[in-house]
Amino acid sequence: MRIESILDRRRFVFLDGGMGTQLQKRGLKPGQKPELAALEMPEILTEIHAEYVAAGADLLLANTFGANARKLTGTGYTVAQVVEASLACAQCAAKNKDVLVGLDIGPLGELLAPAGTLSFEDAYASFAEIVRAGVQAGADFVFLETMTDLYELKAAILAAKEQSSLPVFVSMSFEGRGRTFTGCTVESYGVTAAGLGADAIGINCSLGPAEILPFAQRLCRTVPAHIPVFVKPNAGLPNPDGSYNLDADEFAREMKAYASIGVSMVGGCCGTTPEYIAKLREVFASQVPAQKIPLQRSCLCTPVRFVEVNGITVVGERINPTGKKRLQQALREGDSAYPCSQAVAQSEAGAEILDVNAGLPGIDEAATLERLVKDLQAVTDLPLQLDSSNPEALSRALRIYNGKPIVNSVNGEQKTLDAILPLCKKYGAAVVGLTLDEKGIPTSAEARFAIAERIVQAATAAGIPREDIYIDCLTLTASAQQEGAVQTLEALTRCKRELGVRTVLGVSNISFGLPCRSYLNTTFLTMAMAAGLDLAIMNPNTPEMMAAVRSYRVLTAQDKQSADYVAAYADVQIQSQQISKSTPENRKTLSATEDALFEAVRRGLKEEARTAAEAALASREPLDMVNTSLIPALDVVGDGFEKGTIFLPQLLQAATAAQAAFEAVKAKIAAQGKPTSSNKGKIVVATVKGDVHDIGKNIVRVILENYGYDVLDLGRDVPPERVVEAVRTTGAKLVGLSALMTTTVPNMKATIDALHTAKLDCKVWVGGAVLTPSYAKEIGADFFCKDAKASADLAKQILG
Amino acid sequence: MVRAKPQAIDRAVALRYMGASGWQPDDASSALLDRAESRLLQTAVPRAAWKKLPRTSLPLKDCGSDLIRHLQGCEEVLVLVATLGSEVDTMLRRFELTDIAMAATADAMASVMLEQVCDDLEQELRAELKAQNLYLTGRFAPGYGDCPLTLNDEVCLAADSVRGCGVAVTAEHLLAPRKSTTAILGVADHPVTGTLAGCSTCHLRETCVFRKNGTTCFTSK
User: Shortest CB distance from A772 goes to which of B28, B166, B207?
Assistant: First the structure.
């Protein structure tokens, strides 16, 4: 049999059934590693495979589910040895039979960052090692199964595709709520796996045939027509004694329903035996798989969020350094907290996709974009629009992106198309095409449409489906090219109607150079929506623009019963805005609000603190305001905390309020163009390598920032080298390290040692649940601080 | 296996975790606790995996004396792994960026909620085993007393926690997702209570606020 005939969906193909339960039944002892069966009980293993062949399985999975370096540690065997021996047993059973043998690969057993500490690259390396061993041992295909983390699955698919030319089957396990443990939806799984080039896509384990059925139906609607879908359910649900509740007949009966939904391969997982497969064969042998009819949706996703682009969709534009001094500063310093907080704010304001751009002269765009994407996916579940035309930056960001992103952008220039479209294809990304080429932006709608046509042709030829192509007919600035707006909209309408693609516009460009920009932006957005705009790249924090989007959805009957509109505005009262001219007199009255800032911080009122600070900044120097209003308020609260009259929740509410005030200060300082946000000195903080518990460090960071220190927070799970590098480049005189658990304190010592070896002139203080003053001394720290207040006192002592 | 969420989160305990034992929160802090509680109850997907095994299936000889004392008289052990799920981690990370007061409050409340999930499960298992004339000690977690965190590896493997509830151990023997816990309970054919580790082997004895105030973490409620 050839693998092509397996994948052609003309007849039902039979996979094998459970292996672990079979091994236990035949002598595998508790505590004995099932991965080693091929070396410790090869005859029994071969016999089980042979029984599956006799039962009618077309495809056998070798007993290599857990044959990864981590699980084999301490066994004395290498991955290659176990893979070779295991494949040999299955190949022996398949000999002279019309049966193919697959390299079976399960999860590594460790969670990838940000949930755990295993890096995407290390996960890839582990999978690559197994795949190479499988190729060497003569596997006919690779079978990635029982995956619950889409990110881990992506690492595995890339490893299988790049390290072999074998067909790759993939399979995830879902809970009863239709999501995996990590929250991945069936749809996100289907589009991501298909986009990465999986040759067959399925669902296995966790549940029985009846429970998996609705998820398999959703998968059949998601996966493109040419990719087969398979299921390998458990023998029902588990009984308290560990057995399963369906016998072979019941299992086969429940499986019947799969014949008509478009699934073309069937098998079993935990609790199923050769008998189950034989019964399956009886039920399905005379049947032909139903055609599946996938919905050809334009969609983007992260594991937990599946965004179908069908009508106006808001893309947040704020993570783009062009013209944004505060973000430029953050990107230059490697500060991830600021762009991440922008992501959260845009998400809360109603963005459905986030544009991410790291193009800033003087920084390494590729490294910065990759790091930004990693940082952002730890805090937001919105899909990302990777905004770059640098192939290296795109390639690195696409590789580590978790889900299906959109690339912004290619244009009509052949060179760009050749460099970027293959990347989009390889990583399964959607793509934006700008209607410009080496000659610039054409003035007429006609000429822009012609470029769009060329882009669509090139993208289709590169294997990108039409529903993944988005054309940007380019917003020109009305103050410079007033006739351009209408041309843009005309080209947009034609692209949509004649090319059948999605459209996108950077809406805010329209108003550059003109006052009260939100008026123009909102009007242009409304016109564009009526012309058929799908993706609006805009600032979701502008209430008028979001109001236009929500209103449009009501008026075009997309927002059924106006539910979203009502949810957004039921409690809102529009105050008739008084448009006042900014005059020196106005500013003067505002400056009287400085006491309001002190009060707002002391009482922990975030919004009031922000407003008071903004008002005060109109007439006062930022640092003066910090020293005479903000810090005295924090001191009052901090003293109360020390005396036991103020409690942690109150202290932190004051800190949050001060933080809001500080954002206003930083924005002002960045706008003034000064290089750093204060002159009080730099501090580097980090939670050490291996440790993911960083709430304490984050509290310390906020309090130190409130006192006006310039804190570079390196995050959690930070390797010693990164701390050394950060101290070297920033010249920080004070470094704070945190570790929560006993097992990560050695990494704290390693970090301190590395700082000493590098002979950097800095003091180190440490903190964390298991640390004590004597322990701190023992590992070479200069100071121990029991809490954030003590850390701020220390900073005052060292840096002034 | 997915577990039911508690109806409410015990805020007295959450306040104790935040160093504010016995404090009557002011209005703003009460509102903060309310918000944290409602977001957690909405976001968490509590799950657990557990298994009853012969005591010999754990490498107890490398695990200090406190756990051995706790398991005295027990032929079997029940290993248990529970989590609030990775969605809670993401939510906490988000709060840490935008609102540190909310982050710290939700973090403490998540720890309490996880304990409540374990309490409910323990109660259920206790009743189940009682029907077979078996008795349970209390929960003992690696990292407590002189029992090393490395035992997390064996407990998770034995409970099949990766497949059962999505909890894995990192290279440094910490649990991921962050709001997860392991526990070992002794199983005996006669009533057993287990033994608390006490302060003599505790890592925190030098800096412990409870001890400074003449009490302990396990008696101060």
Answer: B207
